[in-house]
Design a protein that fits this description.
alpha/beta; 297 residues; 7-stranded mixed β-sheet; 10 helices; Rossmann fold
């Protein structure tokens, strides 16, 4: 079962999966607290990916992001409990780590809501966790999507700053990460996959042999030069397990489950930031990733 308020996305889901008798696609919105329990009825697992995700200084964005990213998450949690859902996985973002914009702040708060919500949901049979990752190539609104349009129009590539770096994955990678996190989900943790990173200029070189740029400057609203996937405080308690860095709740916070967290402690000096991360993609590796995106799409 899937639902979205976006008609184009619903049409795309039906075109790809509507043939399957087990697939249902509904019109819905996480802001609609009354409708969500009906949509979730009969579901064992909910993957909560709904979000407004624009990094912007537009005056409406704080309110809109509060309604969708924060209050919408509260609605999803309450509806999942009411409908008897067993697992809930929230899709978060590196923008929520040491947030300095509205989008990141709302994502960080939503993470806290999901994690702390286990105190009430765990005894009722609902386990909730978060998975956090970086930039998904060719997702709606992604830089790759924008640059492809600019290349097709014969325009230079718009770039905020030549120093900018990000973590990268494809839609297929994201789906695999979600499925692996669901298989390991215990309740209260943040799953952080081990992703490669690269400068945006390297993605541009993978797309165009000798790219021309239009430098636009850092976008107002809190765009970062580099992203992090673990904060300093999270490194101190994170565990290395099954291909993830797993961040348990703070001690004393997870009264719903007193069992020890499995996995090896991560190095105390780990710095999971996109400019200094040891897994840096080459131009050729980025070109192969772009090809994979084309095949997946």
């Amino acid at each position: 079962m899937a639902f979205s308020r976006d008609e184009a996305r619903r049409a795309a889901l039906l075109a790809d999966f509507g043939w399957h008798p087990g697939v249902r696609v509904f019109a819905g919105d996480v802001r609609d607290a009354e409708r969500l329990p009906d949509i979730f009825h009969g579901c064992d697992t909910v993957i909560h990916a709904a979000a407004r995700k624009v990094v912007s200084a537009h005056p409406d964005e704080p309110r809109e992001m509060l309604l969708t990213n924060v209050l919408g998450t509260m609605n999803v949690i309450a509806a999942a409990r009411a409908a008897g859902v067993r697992r809930l996985l929230f899709i978060s973002s590196d923008k929520g780590v040491e947030a300095n914009n509205v989008y990141g702040t709302t994502k960080s708060l939503a993470e806290y809501l999901v994690i702390s919500g286990n105190a009430q949901s765990f005894p009722a049979g609902l386990r909730m966790a978060t998975v956090r990752y970086g930039n998904v190539l060719a997702s709606r609104g992604s830089v790759l999507e924008a640059w492809r349009r600019q290349v097709a129009a014969g325009l230079p590539l718009q770039l905020s700053d030549a120093r900018m770096t990000r973590f990268w994955l494809t839609l297929g990678d994201a789906a695999d990460i979600v499925m692996r996190a669901l298989a390991d989900l215990r309740g209260g943790e943040i799953f952080v996959p081990k992703l490669p990173a690269a400068p945006l200029t390297r993605l541009a070189e993978a797309l165009v042999v000798e790219p021309a740029y239009e430098m636009t400057g850092i976008r107002p609203g809190g765009e970062k030069l580099h992203e992090s996937l673990l904060s300093e405080s999270e490194v101190r308690r994170a565990r290395d397990r099954n291909g993830f860095y797993v961040v348990p709740p703070f001690q004393g916070e997870h009264m719903w489950d007193q069992q020890p967290w499995l996995g090896e402690p991560v190095p105390a000096d780990l710095l999971y930031r996109s400019d200094v991360w040891h897994r840096q993609l080459s131009v050729e590796q980025m070109r192969e990733m772009v090809k994979r995106v084309t095949v997946e799409g």
